[in-house]
Fold this sequence. Notes:
By secondary structure, the chain is α/β, with parallel strands linked by helices.
Amino acid sequence: MKKPGTARAEILKPTDENIQRAALILKQGGIVAMPTETVYGLAGNAFEAESLSKIFLTKERPTFDPLIVHVSMENATLADLMREQLIYPHELSDIAVRRIDKLIRTFWPGPLTLVLPKGDLVPDLATSGMETVAIRAPKHPVARKLIQAFGLGVCAPSANRFGRISPTRAQDVMEELGDRIDVILDGGDCEIGIESTILQVTPEGELYLLRPGVISREMISEAVGAAVLDPTAAANPDGSPQIAPGRLTSHYAPKKPFQILPHVISQMMTPPLLRGPKPARIGLLVAGGSAKSAGETLSEILEIPVEAESLSESGDWSEAAKTLFGKLRKLDASSADLLLAEPVTGSGIPYAIADRLFRAAGSKRE
């Protein structure tokens, strides 16, 4: 992490020259921000404890929250992961091997992270001391080029301070970590906008959904022909080593108080109960449809000025995921002193969006 008072980070276009410059920083033990198709990541050498320590320090991230190893497509087959000693193959049953291989061939490169038995070369710091490692192959061309130029896997958690709203633009990273890092590779707005789906494959071949994303439970189940299970809620309480990132009760959170409404605005019959003192102005996040209409309705119900943002005026869930963190960040920077969000229900992408909203509000999801 840079010393206080040093220059702000540089936002660089992802030219071949700048990617090589960023790769050199990684080789020298430094960290850089890179775009992925999900969110921007803070990348460091996945196999050097010193680089991993810089990631944790820069993000103010507790070491009980593990990191994801990002690999290039040149090292993204199951055989490659075994040969590079990223995973420990001897614990895997034949059915586990077949399912992992099918998942990699179907969804990589892309927003699916697999949690597998850890290989000998993965530092304990990357896995929070657990015997499993999270791995994915990002699809974004800049991330792929950087990993290839570096020549090794990188750990790349979201490039923001721990627990805050994830960054989906280079400028978001600058606002979060501009005084702490040297280089941000600008790959434009992230295509997906929410973090990868995380799936654990046990040595016996059972599948557990640890974090929802745009690759849904149904898509995974169809690909491998097996049910995708839910882990027990009490398996990793807050403060203990987590089997995967993004599972803490409070995460993706704005600075301002934030809560989820019991009903969408169109179904609201009585004023909702608001936590804390009466706000002077409310920021409203609408799941879909007209932000203006929903904001005016809520303002009439509460008799409080409302500034509203819609995730997708057309009701497109892919657009809603892409805009989620940006809209939440915009409301957090507004003059509102309380942020509210309509509830989101459903499977697939809506389920993933609901997960982020619940954690941003510090809620336990049943």
